Amino acid sequence: MNVVKRSNDTDVSIVGAGILGLSHAFAAASRGLRVTVFERSGTPTGASIRNFGQVLVTGQPPGAMLGLAHASRTIWKHWADQAGFFAREAGCLLFARTEAETRVIDEFVETRAQQHGYDVERLAHSQLAALYEGRFAHHRAALHGRGDMQVFSREALPALVEYLRTTHGVEFVFDTLVKDVGDGHVCTTSGDWRATHTVVCSGHDYLTLLSDALAPLGPRVCRLQMLRVRPTREIALQHALLTGLSCLHYGAFADLPAARDLQREVESTDPALLDEGIHLLVSPAPDGSLIIGDSHDYNPDPMPFNEEHVDAHLLRLAQRLFNEPLEIMQRWQGVYGARPRNVDRPFSILKVSPGVTGVWMHTGVGMSVGPGLGESVIGHLLEGRMLSAA
Ligand SMILES: Cc1cc2nc3c(=O)[nH]c(=O)nc-3n(C[C@H](O)[C@H](O)[C@H](O)COP(=O)(O)OP(=O)(O)OC[C@H]3O[C@@H](n4cnc5c(N)ncnc54)[C@H](O)[C@@H]3O)c2cc1C
Questions:
Q1: pLDDT of residue 163
Q2: How far is the CA of 305 from the centre of ligand 1 (A)?
């Protein structure tokens, strides 16, 4: 039997097969380079498959993040078409239940959305009756973000791996921990590789690689509780859903004066939601079930213990949104990279040596901006283009 020995030589090596790693792999492979992705698991199991799959343009603050989200949306659309995975393009609906929530939508539509060209429409209370058979008519208004997309991450990521492998010739080396990286070399549990460029996209693992460069960032993790629920009546939801609490969380809205009023209202009416960092989002899965979440617990280490009262809050809010009981099918914990809450920097790009660059997200929007970020970093490393700086 002839055994063909693989050449451990590549142009661009990538550490991590999460969305950041795959985005950088795509950007490099699209330029005709030989790309090798190393992943310690047998398939992606990190933040990138535990999320809502929302490719959220509407929620990003004006400037670099909005630009990256637009670029990412275009890339996701290309991937979904080419790789054939499930994607919704109807956008998102942000429902306002209270007067204070409605005022945030109004302020956003009348000011920021116009100034920065967000593709949104305000839906009045009267229009909600015609939407999903009036299932959301108990809300005061809604914001339709027309530019947003949603994928089913646990299927999209493996499909993307397969697409990159078969269509772009990307080599994947799974079940392999990268132990060390340096200019020209990658040292792994499956042997050593030579690589001209290495991009480390290691998510919230801050110790295995580049720990000296990472330490000054004071990296933290954010732990999130998530549920998948079944509605009692079929709804055939085509939009990802956001709620008033999302206005306190996402940079597009959070600094608006009306959002500060809303923050004060929630502090007085439902402070437990703020204590647990809860804001309700919903993503419909392809089978009609609903992914709902989330809570935010920031720590140096992610505690493994889920709190039942957090799940109870999420279920209560979701049942109020849908105006009906929901049955829990699945529970899980997501973890993503973060930084201390007073540091307003959504991601870091560190060129630690001529041939080694690290890229890490510090907020929960890697699906929304990751593909654009990958294109920006690879364009910078290979063609000297300007980096998108957040
Ligand atoms: C519950 C939840 C909901 C979210 N919802 C959304 C959303 O709807 N929209 C959105 O935009 N963002 C969302 N996010 C955020 C988004 O998922 C993250 O920002 C993004 O997935 C981070 O991608 P990543 O590639 O950096 O990390 P990961 O997906 O964690 O990937 C890192 C990979 O690197 C591998 N790795 C690390 N070190 C090594 C090593 N030394 N050798 C080999 N492999 C290594 C790990 O095994 C892992 O697979 C959510 C996150 C969570 C947790």
A1: 98
A2: 20
